[in-house]
Amino acid sequence: MAQRLALQRLLSLPARGPLASHGRAFGTSAGRRSTFNVQDGSDFQDRVVNSPKPVVVDFHAQWCGPCKILGPRLEKLVAKQEGKVVMAKVDIDDHTDLAIEYEVSAVPTVLAMKNGDVVDKFVGIKDEDQLEAFLKKLIGA
Predict the structure, then answer these.
(1) Which biological process, per GO, is one annotated for this protein (predicted)?
(2) Type and span of the H or E element at 113
(3) 67 flagged as catalytic
(4) According to the model, what pLDDT value does residue 94 have?
(5) CA distance 127 to 139
(6) Sorting pLDDT into bands at 50, 70 and 90, what band is 141?
């Protein structure tokens, strides 16, 4: 299971370098539909700020060890919410402007957003029970 999540996470990472494609990650599982990588500022505006659903925003970095643990854990729990919430992943090295705008000073930083407003936030790694409570509070369950 952990290997599958690691592989899914790897496949969802944006390609890098001069020959990198500019397409989005692909996949058909529920986790892929509920989680997406932010492509740029306008994508963030469209899919996060203007989202009709609550959004969990995961600010992370490739070099961050705790991010590699938290990301798949959070993706799994968001997928279990069956479409009540979506998850946006923001690489702070690729999107420094968004990190600055949302006052991200450490990674991982996770924001809970509703109707374009930040309604909750945590920094660092959390266990599954804490993450479930965070999601239930966001969804209002």
Answers:
(1) cell redox homeostasis
(2) strand 109-114
(3) yes
(4) 96
(5) 19
(6) low
